[in-house]
Every structure is written in C-alpha cells, then in structure tokens.
Amino acid sequence: WQSDELIFFVNGKKIIEKHAEPEELLLSYLRKGLCLTGVKKGCGIGGCGACTVMISTYDPVSKKILHYPANSCLLPICSLHGAAVTTVEGVGSTKTRIHPIQERLAKCHGSQCGFCTPGMVMSMYALLRNHPEPSMEQITAALDGNLCRCTGYRPIIDSYKSFAGEPTCCQLRGTRQCCLDQEGVHASSDKGDGMCSNLCNPKEFQPMDPSQEFIFPPELMRM
Ligand code: FES
Ligand code: FES
C-alpha cells in the first residue's frame, strides 16, 4: 500500500482512504460516509455511549488480537490505520440474523425508545469477545459508560445476566433467588442461569455461538 493511504476495515469490508480528512471523526464517517446509522449521536462529547463501536487491533508483540469498545464521536478516522471496526450492523440485524445480545435485550425489555441500544449492544459485544463468560462485576463495569434515559437499567442488567459465567443475583448470591422478585425466578437449567423476573424466559434464548463472529482480517495482521 502507499504510505499516504489510510486502510482499515468496517464490518469485514476493507476501506481505503487516499485523502483522509485529519479532523474527520469515526461517528460522522460511519453515519454519513457509510450510511451505517445504527451508531447513534447522543452527546457528541464522549459522555453517553450511544456512539459505541468495537475496535479490534493486532498486537505483533504479544501476537494477540485486542478488542475494545470506543466512543466513535471522539475517534479520528486517521487513528484507525490497521484496525477493524465493528458496528451494531456487523453484530446482527433483522435482515440477516439477530445476535443473542440483541435478542436477550429485546426479550427482557431492555430497550424502550432504543436510542441507547446499539451502544449497549456494542459494549456488551466487546466484553464477550474478550470474556465469553464474564462475571456480573465485569458486565456492570462494561456498561457503566452507557446512559439510558428510559429503562432504569435494571432490565438491561437482567438481560445480560444470562451471559454471566457464574449464577449471581443481587445480594443473594448462590441461592438462585433474587431480592427483587423471589416468586419470579426461572430455574432454567441445572447450570443455574437464574433470572430476576417473569418478563422473559431464558429457555427461549438462542445460545451464544462465538464461531459465528467476524474474524480479524488476516491482511491487517501482515501490515
Ligand atoms: Fe455520546 Fe459519543 S455520542 S459518547
Ligand atoms: Fe431509550 Fe435507553 S431505551 S435511552
């Protein structure tokens, strides 16, 4: 490639920018340039998480692929040379396949107006790419940069409780009961993936299948 070319991938598609604008931010590039309007503009200054995408890079020293969530409203596209960007459109859609992260959020009533939802999905997606069976502490930490003005957060956390490696529930850890709704606990399997409410049934959830996710573009590992 030529040294003045900016090369990165978005949802598995290679992008080559020969005249990248130094001040262009990823959020406007995705929404206006690529028509990927799943990524939302809330505050525009890094405070709400509505614009979250996942950035993946290859570290040639450790020979590991690193995934992290990022506020696209703060990220100049010129910082993305050699990176792979995943937006909510790359995670799943009603046109192709709804991802379990999206399905569980919807079925557990974790989305109302839906404006924060793509950012919530992307923060959770980045967490699961790094930690397929996260703890509840990791789940709540992963979502702490995402604001929601509608749900009060409880249904969102309940949705994603089902991805936790260990059954955990409020202060009653290990009892498979919840202090909020002891009548409504679903003991859905022997593994103990108990949920806090009657609003959704974990037996209906699609299983998480990491083999269906985008792989990191091999070309970027050679750059
Ligand atoms: Fe609010 Fe980017 S739009 S953090
Ligand atoms: Fe409306 Fe979160 S569902 S902002």
UniProtKB/TrEMBL annotation:
Residues 4-91 form the 2Fe-2S ferredoxin-type domain. This is Aldehyde oxidase-like. It comes from Alligator sinensis. The gene is LOC102368849. The chain holds residues 5 to 227 of 642 of the full protein.
